[in-house]
Each structure stands twice: as structure tokens, then as C-alpha cells.
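Bench log. Compound arrived from synthesis this morning; before running ITC I wanted a structural hypothesis for how alpha-D-glucopyranose sits in the protein. Inputs:
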Amino acid sequence: MPDLDARARVILGENDRGGFTVPTSGLYPFQWNWDSCFVALGFAAFDEDRAWQEIETLLSSQWADGMVPSIIFHQDDPGYFPGPEIWATGRTPHSTGITQPPVAASCVRLLLEQARDRSAAEHRARALLPKLLASHRWFHEARDPSGSGLVTTIHPWETGMDNSPAWDEAMARMEVAPDLEPYERRDTGHVDASQRPHKSDYDRYMTLVELFRRHGYAHEIEALSPWRVADPCTNFLLLRADRDLAWLAEQFGEPTRQIQIWITRAEAALPRLLHPATGHPHALDLVTGELAPTPTSAGFLSLWAGLGDAATIERLEAWIAPTPYPVASVAIDDRRFESRRYWRGPTWAFANFMIADGLARSGRPDLASRIQTATRTLIERHGFFEYFDPLTGEGCGGDSFSWTAAMWLAWASRDRAGG
Ligand code: GLC
């Protein structure tokens, strides 16, 4: 499907703002943390130099304490809310004061392993290593001060799965600030409101932002946030990223002892997320100590982390069996499933990529290729949308979306699959 390859490259080119890529123009006009990491994998299919640059630009915006922000506001754009003046973090470049799931070290490893120009790639990877290490240290220290082995996420936006039903209980018990500043959303000006989070969610998102801002984004916000969750996605991605960071450190003769300690701790703690009845990993509300009742596809990212076992794969097979276009973010027979509302049911190409990667590494290339084929079909029939309705395949959210184009180039296209 070479014309789609060309189209995917055009999308990345059009969304390129010079050294970084916006997820899509209009709806998301800045640099997003984990989007950029996946986008780098797409660039690598035709321009390795540009692929490295995407991650370099992201990490050049790292805070002094090691945190890599969720959004970097390299330039102004009135079409987005909440922008730099609301976050008011006082950092240069302007950024949010929260992070996103850590995937940079894993993408750097993939770039290095697949590099056509190995020595140039080694040079770039080695230069990124201290920054990656600092960002992992930040997660393990600032977001797990007691060394429990699970890192805390303090805002739904940090999970990258903003309105997942896994947050419903934690969101419901959270009070909206009575003095919340009036605000005007911009997302519903770009995309139909039926596909976006509700106002009640947004009021809570903004309550948290105002709280963090009042506390100057200090480390203490980890303890102050009324919304504290051990998110399966963040924790599984961090474990995989720690393994990849250790691999990178070994390549360059750097010590790995501290990274191994993080890995061992996480492996010991992650079983706390397993639902006692099903064994599926759920979000753990660290305020109440309760597991969220709704299972989501984030639980299958245990495969990406190298923790998927036969039971995980069986659950995944049951999850996708009735779904025309897997992997639905919420099971299609769940009472909270909504086929088009963002993280409450739709399927996402980059999430499918991580699940399929984990399956291929867990001895199930057949199932990995089924998910790959389903993702390819979605893009062939419906285009490079932000995400897709898992029942009809229809594209939803933003169009000409960078990480969907990148996943096509890096993984889903027929050429990538070898025919
Ligand atoms: C939304 C998604 C998040 C993504 C961002 C930009 O906020 O929930 O995962 O990083 O859009 O694409």
C-alpha cells in the first residue's frame, strides 16, 4: 500500500513544526511527550536523523528535577486550553507541570536496534542516556517516595488515557474546587462533544491543575493531590522502560545496579494491581486502597512489560473475540463501554502496537499479527485518525494524526509486515 506510506510521511511532514511534531494541527498544537516517542519510530522508517531529533527536542525540555512534561508549549496557540498561561510553571520552554507514561527509553532502544547508521545512532543514544536515567530516577523517587515499587499518577492527563472508566470512582469522590476559575474548553470546538470527556471531568481536571499551580509544582504535590492512582499503563511502561534503560546502559558500559533495583521492586509490587477474581491488572486508587472495578486494555500492557503469562493471553483472546476491530480500550460488553468516546471504548493504533509487541515477545506472533492486521485494515479503510470505533472501524477524534501515521510506517503497513 505504497500510497498510504506516502500519505503517512506527508502527515508527519505537515505536523512537523521544526524539530518536534504536533499530534494534529488544531486540536493538539504543541509537542506531547509520549506521542513524540512513537512518532520517532515512524520517522525512523525514512529519516533516522529526524527520528532522533524528535526525542532530543522532547528531552531538552526536561525539568531540572528530571521530570519530562506531558506537553511542551514551544510556541503560542490560542486554539488550545489549558495553555501555558494557565499552567504558569515558569519553565523555559513553557510546559505543563505533569508528565505522561514513560516510553522514551524503550523507543530509543528500538531506534538503536533498528538503526541503519549504527555509529550515528550510538552517538545519539549515548548522549540521551543521562537524561533518560534522570527521568526514571524522578519517577522512582518523586512518584514513589516510600520505595513501594509502584509509582503514583496525580492527574488523569498523566495516564495518557484521560477519561478512562478506570478513573470514574477516583474522579467521583473528588470535589470540584468551589472557587474554580471560569474557563472555556477548546477541544469541543475541534471535535464533536460526544467523543470528548464530560464537563464534570473537565472541572476536576482543572481543579487539580489549579491545586498543583498553587503549590508551585513542588515534589509535595504527589502527597497533596486528592487524585492519586497507581496506573497500570504508567507502571507497566516504566518497567519496560527500565529494562530498556538497563540494556542501553550496558551497551555503553554504564552501571545498571540502581536500575536493577527499580526493576526488582516493580516486579514485586505489580501483583498488587491484579484483580483477585480475574487476575487482570486494574488501576489502584492509592487514596482509598481500592482497585477500580472496571478492567481496561491498559491491563494488557503487562505484555509490553514482559510480564504477560498464558492467563493474560487467554484473557486478551476473550477480550478481542467479539470485537470487529480490536483492541477495544474497554470491553465491548462492559456497561461503561462507549464506542466513540475517547478512552471509554475506542481502539488506538499505538496501544495495539505495544500489545502486539508484547505478544510477539511472549511466543504469540500469530496473535500479534492478528492485531497488526486489524490495525492495518482500520487505517486502510478509514484513514489516519486519532482513534477508531472498535465496532464499525470509523475514525474518530482528530484526523491526519501523527502517532497513527507513525504506527503505520513503523509497524502496521503491509511492507513492514513483509507482505
Ligand atoms: C490526549 C490523549 C493523550 C495524548 C494527547 C495528544 O490527551 O489522551 O494520550 O498524548 O491527546 O495526542
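What the model suggests: The pocket of alpha-D-glucopyranose is lined by residues 23, 28, 32, 34-35, 160-162 (CB under 6 Å). The mean pLDDT is 96.
ITC booked for Thursday regardless.
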